[in-house]
Write a structure and sequence with these properties.
Number of domains: 2
Shape: elongated
Bound molecules: zinc ion
Largest sheet: 6 strands, mixed
Structural class: alpha/beta
Oligomer: single chain
């Protein structure tokens, strides 16, 4: 195997890589009534001393509920199924496939505050690769849920493991947490890094380093 072969995708496409058409996103829970949650937001507004009936706030509960339906639209998706369409013609390519800087927005399950960051994915194909937009969609499917960063990192890695059965998977997530930013006025939140490795990436420090170098390359 050619250990030096590394393909790095940075929020873009490598011309030779299979590209797939965008799927249309699933509709956000048309079966669920928003009346009760809107009443809940009105109660929250009253609890913080606001008048939910004043002009500026009248439509806010509906907006908040629709926004959270969107933030949490990942529950309706089966991320492993997103990886079903594989390309087994890899023309002998046996190097590490690295996709860095996948932007995501999630929400923490403790405060419902935004988690904003970037996910980086590496995998060593055994006999199949996927269109790289699918990897970004996997990140999105897990980000659009209430999360803690550690779990999201592990879920993305497990999904790629289950969907592609590769020889190795690495997932690194860098993110800032809104709930921490808000605790200090004018302070920039520290950036939390979480990582999950399996297979050869968990035991080969050099392979890991190639992944970290790719992540650091354009900082
Ligand atoms: Zn939080």
């Amino acid at each position: 195997m050619n250990e030096s072969a590394v393909s790095v995708f940075r929020n873009g496409r490598l011309a030779s890589h299979p590209v797939d058409e965008e799927d249309t996103p699933d509709e956000v829970r048309p079966d669920v009534s928003y009346d009760a949650p809107e009443e809940g937001v009105r109660a929250l507004l009253r609890a913080i001393g606001e008048d939910p009936d004043r002009d500026g706030l009248r439509d806010t509960p509906g907006r908040v509920v629709r926004a959270f339906a969107e933030y949490c639209s990942g529950y309706a998706l089966d991320p492993v199924a997103l990886l079903q369409r594989k390309f087994s013609e890899v023309s002998g390519y046996q190097g590490l496939v690295i996709l860095t800087d996948i932007d995501f927005v999630s929400h923490c399950e403790h405060h419902l505050a935004p988690i904003v960051g970037k996910a980086h994915i590496a995998y060593l194909p055994s006999n199949a690769v996927v269109g790289i937009s699918k990897l970004a969609r996997v990140v999105d499917a897990y980000a659009r849920r209430l999360q803690i960063q550690e779990r999201m990192t592990a879920q993305i890695a497990q999904c790629i493991e289950d969907g592609l059965a590769p020889r190795a998977v690495g997932v690194v997530v860098d993110a800032e947490h809104g709930c921490m930013t808000l605790q200090g006025v004018n302070k920039r939140a520290p950036r939390l890094r979480t990582q999950a490795f399996s297979g050869e990436l968990s035991v080969d420090p050099q392979m890991q380093q190639r992944f970290f170098d790719a992540i650091a390359a354009q900082r």
